[in-house]
Specification:
Helices cover 0% and strands 37% of the residues. The chain has two domains: 101 residues, Sandwich (Immunoglobulin-like), CATH 2.60.40.10; 57 residues, no CATH class. The protein is mainly β. The protein is elongated, with a radius of gyration of 24 Å.
Length: 180
């Protein structure tokens, strides 16, 4: 059985969204940013998706969505692979990496935050009703507002991601009765 160990003083952190991504590199001993680290991002097939350097704060901002992280149903093989290379104060080159698929114990569903499971945009709906109380058989007028979550809040949907349609709705009332 082959075994390998990586001895490093760098930690690589990856943050992805549907619009962009960031890589943050810090030292493990002091938690300080690592400026000018060479960053490379690969998909699960080993294809290079992006390369660049960290700024003075140890952050590499990637101005595009990083696709290509899902190659297999096997969790061990899916995800992006990010490497960081930098020289320490003594001039020795240090290497570290992170995979976007490493999340055992820190899965997003364990925390009380909204979670998005794929790269498609999250569409939110809000309904405005003509009044707060209804009786069975009454006609109700309502307006539905659809918005997409964006990096700076909510944004309007752009066609063809939506289509206007009329629909009928059944509303559950108390005691398991249904109003149509």
């Amino acid at each position: 059985m082959r075994t390998a160990a990586l001895v490093t003083n760098m930690a690589v952190h990856l943050k992805r969204s549907s619009e962009n991504a960031s890589v943050w590199v810090t030292t493990l001993d002091k938690g300080k940013p690592v400026p000018d680290a060479k960053i490379s991002v690969y998909d699960c097939k080993g294809e290079a998706l992006w390369s660049g350097k960290t700024d003075k704060n140890g952050i590499a901002s990637i101005g595009k969505q990083l696709n290509g992280g899902e190659c297999s149903s096997d969790e061990e093989l899916s995800g992006l692979f990010v490497t960081a290379r930098a020289k320490d104060a003594q001039g020795n080159e240090d290497v570290s990496f992170v995979r976007s698929g490493w999340n055992r114990g820190i899965e997003s569903w364990r925390f009380p935050f909204p979670t998005q499971w794929n790269d498609s945009p999250s569409i939110l709906a809000h309904t405005i009703l003509d009044r707060p109380l209804f009786r069975a058989g009454e006609t109700v007028s309502m307006k539905h507002l659809l918005r997409v979550q964006a990096g700076k809040g909510l944004a309007q949907l752009k066609p063809p991601s939506w289509t206007a349609t009329r629909c009928a709705a059944a509303v559950s009332a108390s005691r398991n009765s249904v109003c149509r």
